[in-house]
Amino acid sequence: MKNLKLKAARAALDLSQQELADIVCVSRQTISAIEKGDYNPTINLCIAICKALGKTLDELFWTGEF
Amino acid sequence: MSGFDFGVFSVFSTVIIIYALITVLQKIFFKHGNPPKKEFDERQELVRNRGYKYAFYTLMCCTILISIFDISEEQTDIRSLLTFASVGLTIIVYGAYTIWNDGYLTLQENPKSALWILSIECILTLPLGTVMLLDGYAMNLSLFEPLFLLFSGFMSLILVVLILLKQAYRKKTEEPED
């Protein structure tokens, strides 16, 4: 499932995938895979992304589905 | 010590010496500077771990197949050929999987420099191996040296092709970022 909330938050800060990737020390392909829903990041990476985008875990990664 | 054993011993000792040299140079290089940055991210490490697993299965299958043929100790050239083929196939499986899933290159490397290095290796090894084979070098001595060069060259060539294919595929399929 695509993570549109992450994409929207990144776009709101006018950050490219590469810029966000550089901030959280991962590859651009990893950010792309998270946004496309192809990769489930670890909690550490989720926290790093949330800090970089100034959002909470709930705002970016909570889907409300089980 | 037979020619085959000596060849294997030479290759392994060369690899160990090169590895030790790289390690020492890395330690000297990073001694006074900043600590080295993270090489791979968590997704890349996952991809590389899967790549190692598939490579291990490939090597295991090849070893079983070679043992089925029961090659005698005298047929050192055929043993060399099959050993290189299985190791080469293992590296190709690992390379193909990790390149296709963007786990082959570190965060600091760019595909262009990797392409250059692999291409240079290809240019150095393939023609030399072919010439050694065609000149009848193998008729008098072991097949070990030309085969080693040819397999190294072919592996580099396959990795170059895979990196280029992946880049082309990415350009074709990747949607715009924003």
Beta fraction of chain A: under 5%
Spans of chain B with pLDDT under 50 lasting ≥5 residues?
A: none
Q: Looking at the structure, what is the overall shape of chain A?
A: globular
CATH superfamily of chain A: lambda repressor-like DNA-binding domains
For the terminal residues of chain B, how far apart are their CA atoms? Answer: 64 Å
Question: What is the overall pLDDT average of chain A?
Answer: 89
Q: Which class do the helix and strand fractions of chain B yield?
A: mainly alpha
The largest sheet of chain A is:
none
SSE topology string of chain A: HHHHH
List keywords for this structure.
heterodimer, A: 66 residues, mainly alpha, 434 Repressor (Amino-terminal Domain), 5 helices, B: 178 residues, 78% helix, globular
Task: Write a brief structural summary.
With 66 residues, chain A is mainly alpha-helical. In chain A, helix 2 crosses helix 3.
Task: Give the topology, please.
The complex is a heterodimer of chains A (66) and B (178).
Chain A: H1 4-12, H2 17-23, H3 28-36, H4 43-53, H5 57-61
Helix pairs in contact in A: 2-3
Chain B: H1 3-29, H2 42-69, H3 76-100, H4 111-134, H5 137-140, H6 144-173
